[in-house]
């Protein structure tokens, strides 16, 4: 794999949940993310509370420009979810570097796999070592709703 992409100048990565602008992230996800449209804020807050939370912030203002969360047992498995990059910074390399930062943050756990689902960003994730499931026929899903 090639060198880990770095955030452009003027942006910083953080895994500090306290820095997450919950209202902003909820607005992004519930109004502009196909997988989370109309998600209630309470549901988002509950999901955050059970996850590792990550953000990218402008270094000069502290404004949040990206968010993602990871559900993990910190030993074997992780699910990368709710990856969102503000439209104003898309195309600048923020998203690719952000996901690389999350992947690298998880490396010390020694996870066997990190999964994610995407309809439209396969190219971003492939650059970082993600690939389609080797044997999708062995995976199953239960949707209780």
Explain this structure to me?
It is a single chain. The chain has a 5-stranded mixed beta sheet. The radius of gyration is 15 Å and the shape is globular. The model has no long low-confidence stretch (mean pLDDT 95). It contains 4 helices and 5 strands, in the order βααβββαβα. The protein has 145 residues and is α+β, with helices and mostly antiparallel strands. A hairpin with a 4-residue loop joins β3 (64-72) and β4. It has helices at residues 22-32, 41-49, 94-106, 122-126; strands at residues 11-14, 52-58, 64-72, 77-85, 113-115.
Can you give me a brief rundown of this structure?
The chain has 145 residues and is α+β, with helices and mostly antiparallel strands. Helices cover 26% and strands 22% of the residues.
List the main descriptive attributes of the protein structure presented here.
145 residues, five-stranded mixed beta sheet, alpha+beta, globular, 5 strands
Layout of strands and helices, then pairs:
Elements: E1 11-14, H1 22-32, H2 41-49, E2 52-58, E3 64-72, E4 77-85, H3 94-106, E5 113-115, H4 122-126
Parallel strand pairs: 4-5
Antiparallel strand pairs: 1-2, 2-3, 3-4
User: Based on the structure, what is the oligomeric state of the protein chains?
Assistant: single chain
* Helix coverage percent: 25-40%
How would you spell out the order of helices and strands? EHHEEEHEH
Shape: globular
Strands of the biggest beta sheet: in what spatial order?
1-2-3-4-5
The proportion of residues in beta strands is 15-25%
């Amino acid at each position: 794999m090639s060198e880990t992409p770095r955030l452009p100048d003027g942006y910083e990565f953080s895994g500090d949940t306290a820095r997450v602008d919950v209202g902003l992230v909820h607005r992004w996800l519930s109004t502009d993310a196909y997988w989370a449209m109309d998600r209630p804020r309470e549901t988002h807050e509950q999901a955050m509370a059970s996850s590792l939370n990550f953000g990218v912030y402008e270094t000069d203002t502290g404004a949040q420009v990206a968010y993602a969360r990871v559900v993990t047992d910190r030993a074997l498995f992780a699910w990368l979810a709710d990856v969102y990059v503000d439209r104003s910074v898309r195309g600048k390399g923020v998203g690719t570097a952000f996901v690389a930062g999350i992947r690298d943050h998880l490396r010390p756990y020694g996870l066997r796999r990190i999964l994610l689902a995407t309809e439209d960003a396969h190219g971003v994730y492939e650059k970082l070592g993600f690939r389609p499931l080797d044997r999708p026929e062995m995976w199953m899903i239960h949707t209780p709703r």
